[in-house]
Amino acid sequence: MKYTESQLEQAFISLLETEGYHYINGKELIRTSNQEVLLKEDLRSFLFNSYSDLEEVEVETLINELAFQSTSTLYESNKTICKLLADGLIFKRNNPSKKDLHIRYIDVENIQNNTFKIVNQLEIQGTELRIPDLILYINGIPVVVFEFKTAIEEEITIHDAYKQLTTRYRRDIPELLKYNVFTVISDGVNNKAGTIFSPYE
């Protein structure tokens, strides 16, 4: 069966919903601006639920550790954030009488403690306005970006989706991609997954 892009998007949404992901249309997502890609309320809730004695100012510090992670290149920012997501960090408390905490942004031991969302058609303003097809969020962090192309038009292939992610999105909305763990491109028949820096092959 050959899909249109919107049919393929809906098929992926339905599949992820059966896996327990909560679907939200990007137009209904409440953000302070369309430049914001981190869902800070989700991240804030996760941190408070996981580390109950954190102070509000400490939670804000931990959110900012991710949100304002900006090095000289997208590659370096992405590498730093992926390391934070994989390993967490040792967090020094505001109150010196309290022990340092090992903070994880994703609970890998108790998966049910995380918030999983799938968001489509989220408008993101960078140097240009871009609208990725689908973004997978864990605890408010946009870790996976999906880009779809229709298999109906023969001159359009998933290589076009690859170019969109690795050229246009990298150039125009690096704020989204600094959190990216991997990307998925699909036309419903052919599928590829890799990092934003992977060669097409």
Which secondary structure elements does this structure contain, and how are they paired or packed?
Blueprint: H1 5-18, E1 22-25, H2 40-50, H3 56-67, H4 74-87, E2 89-91, E3 101-103, E4 116-120, E5 124-125, E6 129-130, E7 134-138, E8 141-148, H5 158-172, H6 174-177, E9 182-186, E10 191-194
Parallel strand pairs: 1-4, 8-9
Antiparallel strand pairs: 2-3, 4-7, 5-6, 7-8, 9-10
Question: Strand order, biggest sheet?
Answer: 1-4-7-8-9-10
| Largest sheet geometry | 6 strands, mixed
Ends apart, CA distance between termini: 24 Å
| Unreliable residue runs | none
Number of helices: 6
Helix fraction bin: 25-40%
Which strand-content bin applies to the residues? Answer: 15-25%
The assigned structural class equals: alpha+beta
What is the radius of gyration computed over CA atoms, rounded to a whole number of angstroms?
18 Å
Q: From N to C, what is the helix and strand string?
A: HEHHHEEEEEEEHHEE
Say how many strands there are. 10
Backbone shape: globular
The overall average pLDDT, rounded, is: 92
